[in-house]
Amino acid sequence: MSATRLRLRVQPGARQSAVVGRHGEAWKVRVAAPADRGRATEAVLSLLAATLGLARGDVKLVSGAGSRDKVVEVAGIPPEEADRRLASAGSQAVVTADRASPETGPPRRGDRMSIDTARFRGELLKRREQLQGTIKHHDLSGASLLDETGELMSSSSDNHLADTATETYERELDEGLEEDAERQLREVETALDRIENGTYGRCEVCGLEIPEERLEAIPWTTMCIDDARKLGG
């Protein structure tokens, strides 16, 4: 069976990957991957293979590696059947894809996302409880350094001076731990708010969906790894 060639109009950086429908003589395809180092092209080829029920190796790029207008070649399927399957996928995905398009502006409460927010809410609630326990454990109740070490400071013995240094170090360590816990607690609370308003898992810099593996490592993060590296986060 001869290979079938398909013309595509690609929109990278969408909220959701989908075959949308016809775009003139081409098929309009949206992918979540950015147009960066061939990631969008690879996402398009993988999406087409899945949509057409083909192996990834049966879908090859013919032209348009650096362009939104691409031509791909698919093996093992006649043109009429390829068009039928793409049209079927487009009719099912068009509403969701339109809602997920960056052209619609910031995400709204109720927008569909691929992230399991219920699972991450559970992780964040668990982390919040841990942090609150840490803060309570290290809470110094407003006692000043002089209050805690005053008795030791009143003596001039070398042993007491050494004890005072130890007390000072431990106090500073406790304060540092408490400050870190309080900062992270604020980030966790913000992440929980983002779940409620429908923006959780969206990079606040580029607007793309944060990969799930990054959220699994840092559930309270607000940036994708690329923007975090750029901004030193």
How would you portray this structure in words?
The protein has seven helices and five strands, in the order βββαββαααααα. With about 230 residues, the protein is α+β, with helices and mostly antiparallel strands. It has two domains: about 5-105, Conserved Hypothetical Protein Mth637, Chain: A (2-Layer Sandwich), CATH 3.30.1200.10; about 115-230, Four Helix Bundle (Hemerythrin (Met), subunit A). Strands 2-3-1-5-4 form a five-stranded mixed beta sheet. β4 and β5 (about 70-75) form a beta hairpin. α3 packs antiparallel against α5 (about 160-195) and α4 packs antiparallel against α5. The longest helix is centred in the C-terminal third of the chain and has 40 residues, at about 160-195. It starts with a strand and ends with a helix.
